[in-house]
Amino acid sequence: MKSLAELEAIRKKTLDKVNLRKEREEGIRIVVGMATCGIAAGARPVLNSFMEEVAKRNLQNVIVTQTGCIGVCRLEPVVEVYVPGQEKVTYVKMTPEKAVQIVNEHIVNGNACIQYTIGAADK
């Protein structure tokens, strides 16, 4: 059994994480689908590539997270980019090299890489 002080410390740490998420809602979010289908298709190196490029460029307003299945397994790895005030952009059949390009073009310069989006994949 945990002491009351230990439980309070756990509570505070958890609340700090939740508050951090609320504050980060204003920034850009890169969400990588990391369900079994995504991992099997190569999502882990894609996630690592996004994290490395964001860190290398010291982009403070960008958070890279993971989620479960996004729902289009045939197009994995799938990545969604959320920029405040804009529509979500869904990238498909991602590679680590494409991830670097998306950070450079979409995140830094504001130009979505249309050729990698779900709309382009269905054509």
Describe, in plain words, how this protein is organized in 3D.
The structure is a single chain. This protein is of the alpha+beta class and 123 residues long. Helices cover 47% and strands 15% of the residues. It contains five helices and four strands; from the N terminus they run αβααβββαα. The chain has helices at 4-24, 36-41, 43-56, 96-108, 118-121, and strands spanning 28-33, 62-67, 79-82, 89-91. The protein has a four-stranded mixed sheet with strand order 2-1-3-4, with helices on one face. The chain is globular. It starts with a helix and ends with a helix. 26% of the residues are buried. The model is unreliable at 20-24 (pLDDT under 50).
Question: Ends: how far apart?
Answer: 58 Å
Which series of helices and strands comes N to C? HEHHEEEHH
Strand order across the biggest sheet? 2-1-3-4
Helix content: 40-55%
Kindly report the average pLDDT value.
88
Number of strands: 4
Low-confidence stretches: 20-24
Number of helices: 5
